[in-house]
Amino acid sequence: MSLGAEAVRKVARLARLKLSDAELTRFAGQMDRVLEHMADLAALDTEKVQPTAHALGLTNVLRPDVPAPETDRERILANAPEREGPYVKVPKVIE
Questions:
Q1: Which domains does the chain have, with CATH numbers?
Q2: Cα separation of 94 and 35, whole Å?
Q3: Which one, of 1, 41, 7, lies nearest residue 25 by Cα?
Q4: Span 31-60, pLDDT tens digits
């Protein structure tokens, strides 16, 4: 399948992109190669391949959300470089 500049122009218009004639020609060639790869993949027999969302088997690595007793605020604030009342004081980052 070969895409022409008109097909690329239509896709660019849908994506709200302005492309020069040179870019249209270049992207048409690149899109042709992508479609060739897709055709190669479509030709493969994937009947017995289980669908996956990721190439690696991922598992949830988060700890369970279990309530714990409240931590001593004064002990935590003792590690703060600067504090103001019951809060950690940080430099202003908004102008």
A1: 5-42 (1.10.20)
A2: 48
A3: 7
A4: 999 999 999 999 999 889 888 877 787 787
